[in-house]
C-alpha cells in the first residue's frame, strides 16, 4: 500500500458569462481526482480558502472509514466545519474498498455549488476480470446558474400548492464540459484505440437530476454499481440517480479508422415537482421544462476511436455526427431489457451473501411536506434534522456507551433522530417512501445489501426478500409510494448518516443517524485538530 498526499484549497470563483459561482478546489471544477489502489492511505490537507466566512468539509462518499469516523465529513454530525483559513488533515485508509466513487462537500449546500470530484480505487482484478484496456471517469452533474443560497430561500418559503418546488437545474455537464454557455460548446472527449474495450466510470455528482446515459451505436455492459461488482448486464441505456455510480464496458468490433460517437446524459424527470416539458417534439415526456433560455435537456461527451498519433494532434477533430441507436447490424439491441437498478445482481462467482437473520428491523418513513407555516421540510419518522452547532464530534467520545439504555430508533437531544444498535447486530432498515417521487438514499460507511422493493406499505407476511444473492451498494433508489428493505452488519463503529441524497432534501432535514459502538467498548480518539476547530466556532 502507498500513501497518497493531496493539498487542496477550497475557494469560490464566479462563472464567466453568468451571475453564478462555483466552489472549487485548487481553482478547478470539478475538483481533482483521487486515484489509488486498494488499501492505500489517503491524506488530504484541506484548507478553507472561502472568503464568505463559511466553514467547509468533505465527505468521501461510499468509503468505509474504518476506525476514522471523524474523517467522514458531514459537518454537524462527524466534525465541525473547517473554519475560514484553517486546514484539516483528512487521513484514512480505503479499508478494502475498490471501485468508482466521488468526494463532495458536506457543509451547507457547497456540493450543489460544485464542490466534488471523482475517486477511483483499483483492485487486484482490474483490467483482468472482466477484461478492459482503458479506464476513464466521467463526472456527470446538473448545474444551477444561481448561487445556491439564492435558490434556497425561495425553495424554503414556496407556497405553491401544486407540488414540491425544488429548483430546476439550468444545464448539465460531463467533466465540467458539454453544455453550458461558459464552456463554449466544448465537450469532454474520451480517446481510445480502435478495437479495444473501454471502461467508463459514470458518476452522478449532481444535486437532484437522475441522468439517462447512453452512447450512440453502443451497448453498455454494466459491471459495477457503487463499488459492487455486477454480473455483466447489457443495456441500451441506464438511469443514474444522484450519488450513484456505474462502470460500463463499451466496445465496437469493427472500425473504419477514426470514428466518433456521442455519449449522452439526459436529465430525467421522475417527478421532483418539476414542470413537465410539453413540447411534442420531446419523447418520452419525462424531461425537464425549459425555465431559462440556457437550459439544456441533454449534455454530451465524445467517445472517439483514434490511433495514437491522431490522439496527440492539436488539430480539433470533427464532432460526432451520430444519432442514438443500435450498433450496426445488432438485431438484439431492441430486445435488451429495460434498465432496472433493483434487478442488478452480483456475479454468480462472487460469494458475499448478507448475514442471515434474525435481524433487528427498524422502520423508517420518509416524506417531503410543508410545515404549518408552509415551509418545505423533509421528514424521517416525523422528525426533520437540523444541523447541531456542535456535533457528535463531542458525542463520539460517548459512543462506547451508545447502547446503554437507548437501543432502537429514538429522538435524541437537539431533535436528532438516531438509530442506536449493538455492535455486530444484523439490522434491516425498511424505508417507506410516503412521497410519490423517487428518492436516492445513501448510508455512510456501509454498502447495505438490497433485500427487496415493493409497492405501497411493507408487509412482512408477503414481502419477498432476497437473502441469497442481493447486490450491495451505498446509494439506492426508494421508488415513489414504495418500500425497500436493506440489511447491514453493524460492525463499523461510528455515528453514520443515512439520508436522501437530493441536496434539497438533505438540507431540509431528510437525514437520520445510526450510532454503532466499537467492538471493544473503546471509543475512537478524536484528533485534537477536529476538537480545536469545533472550539473555534464557539
Ligand atoms: Cu454523498 Cu452524506 O453523502
UniProtKB/TrEMBL annotation:
<dbReference type="GO" id="GO:0005507">
    <property type="term" value="F:copper ion binding"/>
</dbReference>
<keyword id="KW-0186">Copper</keyword>
<feature type="domain" description="Plastocyanin-like">
    <location>
        <begin position="14"/>
        <end position="124"/>
    </location>
</feature>
<comment type="similarity">
    <text>Belongs to the multicopper oxidase family.</text>
</comment>
<protein>
    <submittedName>
        <fullName>Multi-copper oxidase</fullName>
    </submittedName>
</protein>
<feature type="domain" description="Plastocyanin-like">
    <location>
        <begin position="137"/>
        <end position="265"/>
    </location>
</feature>
<dbReference type="GO" id="GO:0016491">
    <property type="term" value="F:oxidoreductase activity"/>
</dbReference>
<keyword id="KW-0472">Membrane</keyword>
<feature type="domain" description="Plastocyanin-like">
    <location>
        <begin position="411"/>
        <end position="518"/>
    </location>
</feature>
<keyword id="KW-1015">Disulfide bond</keyword>
<keyword id="KW-1133">Transmembrane helix</keyword>
<keyword id="KW-0325">Glycoprotein</keyword>
<keyword id="KW-0812">Transmembrane</keyword>
Amino acid at each position: 500500500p502507498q500513501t497518497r498526499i493531496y493539498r487542496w484549497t477550497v475557494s469560490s470563483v464566479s462563472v464567466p458569462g453568468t451571475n453564478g459561482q462555483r466552489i472549487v478546489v485548487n481553482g478547478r471544477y470539478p475538483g481533482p481526482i483521487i486515484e489509488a489502489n486498494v488499501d492505500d492511505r489517503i491524506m488530504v490537507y484541506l484548507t478553507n480558502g472561502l472568503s464568505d466566512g463559511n466553514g467547509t468539509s468533505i465527505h468521501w462518499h461510499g468509503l468505509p472509514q474504518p476506525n476514522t469516523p471523524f474523517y467522514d465529513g458531514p459537518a454537524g454530525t462527524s466534525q465541525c466545519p473547517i473554519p475560514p483559513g484553517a486546514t484539516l488533515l483528512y487521513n484514512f485508509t480505503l479499508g478494502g474498498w475498490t471501485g468508482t466513487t466521488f468526494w463532495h462537500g458536506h457543509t451547507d449546500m457547497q456540493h450543489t455549488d460544485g464542490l466534488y470530484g471523482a475517486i477511483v480505487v483499483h483492485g487486484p482484478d482490474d483490467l483482468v476480470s472482466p477484461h478492459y484496456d482503458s479506464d476513464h471517469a466521467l463526472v456527470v452533474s446538473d448545474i444551477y446558474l444561481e448561487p445556491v443560497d439564492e435558490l434556497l430561500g425561495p425553495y424554503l418559503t414556496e407556497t405553491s400548492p401544486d407540488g414540491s418546488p425544488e429548483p430546476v437545474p439550468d444545464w448539465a455537464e460531463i467533466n465540467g464540459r458539454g453544455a453550458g454557455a461558459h464552456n463554449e460548446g466544448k465537450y469532454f472527449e474520451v480517446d481510445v484505440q480502435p478495437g479495444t474495450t473501454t471502461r467508463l466510470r459514470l458518476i452522478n455528482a449532481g444535486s437532484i437530476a437522475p441522468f439517462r446515459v447512453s452512447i450512440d451505436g453502443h451497448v453498455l455492459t454494466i459491471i459495477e454499481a457503487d463499488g459492487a461488482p455486477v454480473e455483466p448486464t447489457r443495456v441500451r441505456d441506464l438511469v443514474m440517480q444522484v450519488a450513484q455510480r456505474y462502470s460500463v464496458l463499451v466496445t465496437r468490433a469493427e472500425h473504419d479508422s477514426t470514428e466518433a460517437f456521442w455519449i449522452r446524459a439526459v436529465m430525467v424527470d421522475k417527478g421532483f415537482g418539476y414542470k413537465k416539458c410539453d413540447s411534442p417534439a420531446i419523447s418520452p415526456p419525462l424531461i425537464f421544462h425549459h425555465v431559462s433560455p440556457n437550459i439544456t435537456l441533454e449534455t454530451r461527451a465524445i467517445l472517439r476511436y483514434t490511433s495514437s498519433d491522431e490522439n496527440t494532434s492539436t488539430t480539433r477533430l470533427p464532432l460526432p455526427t451520430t444519432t442514438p441507436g443500435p450498433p450496426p447490424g445488432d438485431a438484439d439491441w431492441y430486445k435488451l431489457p429495460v434498465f432496472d437498478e433493483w434487478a442488478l445482481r452480483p456475479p454468480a462467482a462472487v460469494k458475499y451473501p448478507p448475514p442471515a437473520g434474525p435481524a433487528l428491523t427498524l422502520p423508517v418513513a420518509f416524506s417531503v411536506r410543508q410545515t404549518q407555516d408552509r415551509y418545505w421540510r423533509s421528514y424521517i419518522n416525523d422528525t426533520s434534522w437540523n444541523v447541531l452547532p456542535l456535533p457528535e464530534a463531542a458525542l463520539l467520545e460517548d459512543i462506547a456507551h451508545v447502547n446503554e439504555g437507548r437501543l432502537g430508533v429514538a429522538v435524541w437531544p437537539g431533535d436528532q433522530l438516531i438509530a442506536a444498535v449493538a455492535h455486530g447486530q444484523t439490522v434491516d432498515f425498511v424505508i417507506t417512501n410516503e412521497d410519490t417521487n423517487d428518492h436516492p438514499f445513501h448510508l455512510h460507511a456501509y454498502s447495505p445489501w438490497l433485500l427487496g422493493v415493493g409497492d405501497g406499505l411493507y408487509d412482512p407476511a408477503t414481502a419477498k426478500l432476497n437473502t441469497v444473492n442481493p447486490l450491495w451498494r451505498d446509494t439506492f433508489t426508494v421508488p415513489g409510494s414504495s418500500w425497500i428493505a436493506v440489511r447491514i452488519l453493524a460492525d463499523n463503529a461510528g455515528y453514520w448518516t443515512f439520508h436522501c441524497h437530493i441536496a434539497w432534501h438533505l438540507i431540509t432535514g431528510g437525514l437520520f443517524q445510526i450510532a454503532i459502538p466499537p467492538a471493544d467498548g473503546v471509543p475512537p480518539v478524536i484528533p485534537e485538530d477536529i476538537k480545536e476547530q469545533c472550539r473555534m466556532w464557539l
